[in-house]
Amino acid sequence: MEQECFHVKKVLNNNVIFSKNQEGQDIILTGLGLGFQKRKGDPVEAEKIERIFILKEEATGNRLSELLKQIPIDYFYLADQIKQHAEQKLSKELNQNIYVTLCDHMYYAVERFKQGLLFQNQLMWEIKRFYPKEYQIALEAIKLMNSTLNVKLPEDEASFVALHIINAELNGHEIQSVIDMTRLIKGICSIVQYEFKIDFDENSLNYTRFILHLKFFSQRLMMNEPPAEEASFLYPQVQENMPEAFQCSRKIALYIQKSYNYTITKSEQVYLTIHIERLLSESRKL
Q1: pLDDT score at 1
Q2: Helices 98-114/58-67 angle, 10° precision
Q3: Which of 6, 81, 154, 285 reaches 20 to 30 Å from 21, CA-CA?
Q4: pLDDT class for 229, splitting at 50, 70, 90?
Q5: Mapping DSSP to helix (H, G, I), strand (E, B) and coil, where does residue 117 land?
């Protein structure tokens, strides 16, 4: 089988170049001396290629190209390791924009560490609570960063890394959307707990289902996506048969309207009511 021939699109340094494959996708080629004395349009010496990274979106390639002019390539290799590990653990593909956002974050996190500047994430507890898988992956990423870059970043830094992983799960939207989603979930949980004076059993199936529902709900709200499937026909039934949970869902609807200028549909209120009723029933059995 004939080996694909690549040509230099841009030389990043002696060991890294940007090129395109036969499908027209931007790619990053790495290898010792691969870019040495190379110019745009030159053929790439295939025997020197050690790794090929395919960038599916041109915009990601452009942003990454600019970023890697400013930071060591080691951060890209590290971001790729973390991305692959996260995809394996989560059983899903992450948006490649994580190469850009995570490289940028890691570089400045290390620079801040060297200057003795440590930031606290005000949503650390909520991220750990609502996104436990992503947080655990982020903890492992911090260990990898510390050993690879010879630093001692604290575990608190994991909450920031987790945000980038969650963001990449949501197709690389602005990270502020993930922060807003987390705050919305926190706000809804607080209303339920305050209304019924209960503590959630975070190991229960009902709690897991509730949080999963809130994740999808908050994503739809923040991304302006259409509501879930129709369930408004159940509205009179839940109103009559689940009065306490229904009243709580109305308070949540008012909170969302006031805080996010979003009117939840009857279907969404039905689903909220059902989940709240399950949590309430579970707490009363304890």
Answers
A1: 42
A2: 20
A3: 81
A4: low
A5: coil
Q: Are 10 and 2 in contact (CB under 8 A)?
A: no
Are 98 and 165 within 8 A, CB to CB?
Answer: yes
Domain boundaries of the chain, sorted by first residue? 1-55, 175-285
User: What class does CATH assign to 1-55?
Assistant: mainly beta
SS3 30: strand
Q: What is the predicted pLDDT for the residue at 123?
A: 85
Q: pLDDT value at position 27?
A: 86
pLDDT for 11? 84
**Residue 110 vs residues 2, 98, 154, 216: alpha-carbon distances, Å:** 43, 17, 11, 33
When pLDDT is cut at 50, 70 and 90, the band that residue 185 belongs to is very high
Query: What is each CA distance from 15 to 18, 40, 71, in whole angstroms?
Result: 11, 15, 14
Cα 20 to chain centroid distance, Å, stands at 28
Cβ contacts of 243 within 8 Å, gap of 6 or more: none
Contact 95, 168 (CB under 8 A): yes
pLDDT at 151: 92
Cβ 144 vs Cβ 78: under 8 Å: yes
What band does 2 get if pLDDT is binned at 50, 70 and 90?
low
